[in-house]
């Protein structure tokens, strides 16, 4: 095992991550269908996305705080099951109110899984932090990318009730994690870790990193929500829209896999400067292209945008000196959740001026996180600090 990286733990957590994030990716592909089936306005769609973000993201720091206080590995199987069962039950939803409730339950599952999983993954990465976190993150990227395809298949073949098929993989992966808890516990208890904490880092650095994630997430959520609606307006069917969205998200997974080793080699700030700097021109090009060219540009946009999440998480965890759960909760929860709030505002823009205008607004947004990346301090001297044993051991 190179540099103490526990690939078995990362693979198991990656599988759970795949299942949880499949539900995150499922909702955007569901939106055009739900809009027609329930007669929703763009503002009501924005509210659905808002409820998802509040429950799946903004409360993650609370789960992160609990995760740092004591090991709560049971959150891993419970999170997977709640996330999937909430989303799958949309197959039986009779009204908009029930839709909001089910999306909320699914979001709670997503929120409870991430901080515990990121903490456990970080402790299993060894020395190559970005590489290890990328391996774990890519499970989520693939799940996020598969979500729209799975939804498109379920809806096309079986209609709304087809969503109930999601129960099966959710319960299977949840059961596997439940069965693996004692083994995960032993693997982690045996694993001690010293991790680099930047001692010369200015206190505003974490706020800057959080700013990059929040604004980057606003761009990502905006594209994921409005690109399917953009293509649906142009007459594309549910399956074609699902395939396009999956392409965007899975190319993000490819980008994340490349980003880990590359940013470990050239430096995290330099990597972000290049990848984030390309976003603005790419989205503008996408809006001015059609046919295969627009699909290729969409894929390249995904490759540049998605790696931001794992690379910024590694930067933040090196700044937070071992408070791994809270850091993961802040970055993947508060940051991404606050970014998702922008989608609600974009819904009002779409109602007033149309989806294309909304995408034009999104094309300018990447300039903001890119500007913040340029302000990030370069890597400073790091001092190895032992992580307290409480954080290394998981639930017995």
Provide key terms for this protein.
disordered C terminus, globular, Growth Hormone, Chain: A, 3% strand, two-stranded antiparallel ribbon, 17 helices, mainly alpha, 396 residues, single chain
List the helices and strands and how they pair.
Layout (H helix, E strand, L loop, with lengths): L6 H32 L3 H17 L1 H10 L5 H14 L7 H28 L5 H30 L8 H23 L4 E5 L6 H29 L4 H29 L1 H10 L1 H9 L4 H14 L1 H13 L4 H30 L1 H10 L2 H9 L6 E5 L2 H4 L4
Antiparallel strand pairs: 1-2
Helix pairs in contact: 1-2, 1-4, 1-5, 1-6, 1-7, 1-8, 1-9, 2-5, 2-14, 3-5, 3-14, 4-5, 4-7, 5-14, 6-9, 6-13, 8-9, 8-13, 8-14, 8-15, 8-16, 9-10, 9-12, 9-13, 10-13, 10-16, 11-12, 11-15, 13-14, 14-15
Provide the domain count.
Answer: 1
Task: Return the CATH architecture.
Answer: Up-down Bundle
Strand order of the largest sheet: 1-2
Q: Which percent range describes the beta-strand content?
A: under 5%
Structure class: mainly alpha
Q: Largest sheet, described in full?
A: 2 strands, antiparallel
Name the CATH superfamily classification.
MFS general substrate transporter like domains
Low-confidence stretches: 192-199, 380-396
Order of helices and strands: HHHHHHHEHHHHHHHHHEH
Gap between N and C termini? 25 Å
- In total, how many beta strands? 2
How many individual helices? Answer: 17
Task: Explain this structure.
The longest helix is centred in the N-terminal third of the chain and has 32 residues, at 7-38. The protein has helices at residues 7-38, 42-58, 60-69, 75-88, 96-123, 129-158, 167-189, 205-233, 238-266, 268-277, 279-287, 292-305, 307-319, 324-353, 355-364, 367-375, 389-392; strands at residues 194-198, 382-386. The protein is mostly helical and 396 residues long. Residues 192-199 and 380-396 have low confidence and may be disordered. 79% of the residues lie in helices and 3% in strands. The chain has a single domain (2-380), classed as Up-down Bundle (Growth Hormone, Chain: A). The protein is built from 17 helices and two strands.
